[in-house]
Structures are given as C-alpha cells and as structure tokens.
Amino acid sequence: MTRDGHGGRDESSLVQAVRMRHTVLLDALRSRLWPVPALGVVAAVVAGIAIPELDGAVDQHLPTALADYLFGGGADAAREILGAIATSLITVTSLTFSLTLVTLQLASSQYSPRLLRTFAADRFVQRTLGLFLATFAYALTVLRTVRNDSDVAREFVPQIAVTLSYVLAVASVLALVLFLGHLVRQIRIETMLDHVRTDIENTAGRLLEPIDDHPRHDLAPTPPQFASPLTARSSGFLVEIDEQALLTAAVDADAVIWIDRPVGSDLVAGVPVAFAWRAGSSRGSLDDDEAASVHECVAAALKVGIERTTTQDVGYGLRQLTDVVIRALSPGINDPTTAVHGLNSCSAVLCGLAGYHLGRRILRDDDQVARVVLARPDLPDLLDLVCDQTQLYGASDPAVLGRLLTMLRELAWVVVSPGHRDAVADRVRRLERVIAEQRFDPVDRRRFEQLAARAREALDRRWPPT
C-alpha cells in the first residue's frame, strides 16, 4: 500500500480499500436476520401490485391451453385461497422464528454465545424466512385486488396472480420441510465447528500473505520514549482498521504510527491504543498540532463495535472454537468428546495459519519507509489462546491432554519460523508439567510420554526438507 508525494493514492491501494469496505458491509448485512426477509417483503408487495395489473391486460387474451393451467374460480374462491395462504404462512413463519430462537438459545447455552453470529448469518434460514414472509405479503397484496361483480365494477379475478400465490405456498411447504432438516443439521457440533473453521480460513486467505521459500524478516520500528500516545475515543471491540487512512495520515504528517492493539482487542476510552513520532532523519516528537491531527485520523481509522467479527479478526474464530472446548469441559456439560472435536478443528486452523506471515504488519510508502506498524497476533499468541484455558480446565482428562499433545505434534510438522518452533517446544514442556501434577495411572503416563516424544521428534526434523 503506497501513496505518492503529491497526495495521489495508489490505484491498487484504493482497490484494496474498496474491497475491504465492501467485505465489511457484506459481513454486516450477512450477520443479521432481517435484510433478506425485508427485501423479500418489498419484492412481494411490488409483485402483488404489478402482476394483477398484468392480469387485467392479458387475462382475456390468454390461449385456452395456457388458461387451463391457471386459477379458474370466481372472486369468492380466490379470496378463500388467498386468505388461507396468508393465514397459514404467518403461522408457519411464527413457527420458523420460534425454532430459530430455540436453536440460538441452545447454541448459546450448550456451546458458546459467540456462535450466535454464525447462526444469524445462515443464508438458508434467512432465505426461508424471506420466502415465508414474501408469500404472506404477496397473498395479502393480491387479495385487495379481487372484486365481485357489482353496479360499480365488473368481477375481477387475477388468474396469474392467484396461481402464482398457490405456487409460492407449495414452495413454502417444501421449504419448511427442508428448513427442519437443515436446522437439525445445523445444531450438530460438527457442522458448527466446520462453519467456524471455514470462516477462519476465508479471513486468513483474505488478509494474510502466504509464506514463500524465503520467510520475511521485517524489523518493525519500536516506539521511542518521546512518541506521542494516541488514545481511544470510545470503548468496545476494535473490529476494523482502515489501513489506507492510516498510511495517508502518516505520510501527510511525515510520521510513523504504531498501532498497539490488534483487531479484536477490547478498547477503553482514554487509554492509549497507538503511538506516533516523526520519521526519517528528523526523528523526534510531533508538535501539538501535528499530534492532534494524527490523533483525529487514527481515531477515525479505528472502527469500534460492540462485538467481534471475522472481517479482519484472525483470532476470533479460534476464540469461538476454544469457547466450545471450554464449555464442553465444564461440570454442567461434561462432554470431553465435544472438547476433542473442538481441538481437532483448532489443530487444523493452527496448521493452516502456520503457512501465513503472522505477527506485526508494516505499511510502507513509495520510498519503502516504514510508516504504519499494525499489531496482529502471532502463532505463539494463537497457540496460547487455544492451550491456556484448555489445559487448565481439562487437566484431569486424559483424552483432552492427549489431543493437545497430538495437536502440538501436528503443528510441529508445519511450522517453519524458529520462534514458532520454540513456542511449540515450550508448550510441550508446559503441558508435561501439567501432566506430572495429575494422578494418572502408568498406562496413561506412558502414552503421554510417547506423544510428547513424537512432538519433539517432529520439531527436531528439518522441515520442510531441503
């Protein structure tokens, strides 16, 4: 991401910024239940007004072969059909909402409240609710156009509109059957874990750079003592960082901006979240006006929300997976098999993330001067996120401890950076200390020793081979 000296933004940077804004907007809409049903209702009302107008223009001119397949009853029969469809669909919609809320409650209490966003973003549920509400709204809108023969107006029965209402009702019945099957599948722990893992992979593929044959070793400048602290303007979770805005502000002020908190961190108003100082040969502190200007830009570039999202937060998915593991280990649930399933997903995610550049990200200007340093979690941070609480609450469960050691062996095969390999080795030692403090029988202890030895063997191998 670059910016030239005359203030013109680099085209690729603009494209990337637009794509990121588009991704943020789509994620905001996708994670809410109302947009798709609301769009369906609007479309249904428009169709309910337009199709009867079409009926008035073409019903008398339809060929007999086609008219035989359309509704052929009178105005009273049309009212009964449309009324029955509207009544039944609003009942089915209420049932669907109730089942969805029960599923959300089950996911929150049984697994993790942070999985609610995943359920709300389920497109099948959104489209099913949209179909039900659209059919209801369409039937009511068409109903108002049906007229009996009178002195004021002739009888009018919109054949195409009533027939379409029947087709939508049949489609809604089929959708209800599919929805029930889908809901049963969605509440399975394997399905939920797979959704979270897929979200993490998509986020990593969009934000992170794959490691090539020569790993990058950028040295990020550290904030000097005289750096100006930049505080948060509001409290909440850091959900998004506008990288292009930060780079522009740093170039304009001839400064370096150090963002101290990664996306997903909880911010407190008035507490420093970044530091800024003058760059280049004139390295020093910013004056008050420059610091105030940079502060305004940083505050605008750091988007704060009430909940974490997967848009730019690489660690949020692992937080969700770890929550499932911890909740399964709680005395009230006591489901170590679910905990092991969660660790399976954690292992797959960590091994996948090991193939990307993690840690701090440096944004440079056209002269390759470091202008912005962004905080991002490194592999040791993510490994601690998975292991710390899991080994605390699962310290007495042989299956959980064994899966943790297996996960470390799997990770040892794919990590390349010496720092990452040291983190895996340290975690093996810490896990062995936890195991030594427990009262396991000799068979379990020998199995743990074998798993730890295999993890060390994987670390000792030169991988990938030359």
UniProtKB/TrEMBL annotation:
It comes from the Bacteria. The chain crosses the membrane at residues 33-51, 81-104, 124-143, 163-184. InterPro entries: DUF2254_membrane. Keywords: Membrane, Transmembrane, Transmembrane helix. It holds the Pfam family DUF2254. The keyword Membrane applies. This is Putative membrane protein. It comes from Mycolicibacterium chubuense (strain NBB4) (Mycobacterium chubuense).
